Amino acid sequence: MGSSVWRWLRWLAPLVVLALIALIFRGQLSFLGEAWDALLDASPGPVAAAIACSLLSIVCMAAVMQLLINVERPVASLAQTTAITLASNSWSTSIPGGPAVSAWLTFRVQRSWGATAGVCGWFFVVSGALSTVWLVVIGVSAVFFLGASLSVSALAGSLVVAVATTLALYWATRHPTVLKRWVSFVPERVRGRLISVIDEVSRIRMSASRFGLTAVFSLLNRLFDLAVLYFAVWAVAGTAPTTTAGLNETTLSGVTLAFVMTKLAGAAQVTPGGVGTVEAIAAAALVAGGMTLIDATAATLIYRAISFALVTAIGWVVYLAAYAGRGHMLGRPAQ
């Protein structure tokens, strides 16, 4: 009970602090009203493109799941993986401890499809590792090819962990005997289950072409998400960001840097969905890239309204329609 209360307090405290800051400095926050006016004047074409890219990003994420979860045999269609991707995302971004609840829901749904526990674990590890690798690649590319100012060493640790985790999983699929020897010291009541999972993982074999296609969809997931911010900036600025910027405009490298920074901030999950922290970092990064605070705030609001609020709302509709009350969170999932 105490840990649950502490978790809620930890998540709500930053929001309370932000509210107090807004109250104390309300006289100096007139830029928010001006940002709202800029938001209302945003070009509808880029906004529509941002919405399309956000939905395509979700579909690409679902395609990654479909390719990985069907590695042994077909168990899910793209429609099914898209539905659980949306539903689990809504849990992840809405409540304290959301990522854990999201992972549990995804696991339960995948098991109801007929996927083994080993394959489910394979999906979580490989999809997470690929997503991390591509975020690092995008950040490093922005530094070397677009001239962005970003510490490469800050991303190196994430890259090393992601690659090492993937290699460890690959090693595990090829050395089940060694793993079984290691778990022989585990209490007997859980040893049998662990050996079963080891056997399931050892049967996983993925062709190079299938893995390559999975990596491509994972990259597209990141690029479409980046495009959402790109079009949000375009909608406010009135011109598409390029490698050079005019007065009070940002460049493609500025948008990319802001995107990477928001993803790093969002991964910390200080608040549900990174509310407050992500917006502040995104706006600050866009200002550092050359935009005015008013335009940067408006672009950030568009980006978050689409990639966070809209996608989360759609996810809850999908969850209520497809999974609520059907035993996916507790009990035996309905077939």
Automatic annotation (TrEMBL):
Coiled coil: none annotated. Keywords: Cell membrane, Membrane, Transmembrane, Transmembrane helix. One of its GO terms (cellular component) is plasma membrane. It is a multi-pass membrane protein. The keyword Glycosyltransferase does not apply. Signal peptide: none annotated. It comes from Corynebacterium qintianiae. The keyword Cell membrane applies. It holds the Pfam family LPG_synthase_TM. It is found in: Cell membrane. InterPro entries: L-PG_synthase/AglD (IPR022791). This is UPF0104 family protein.
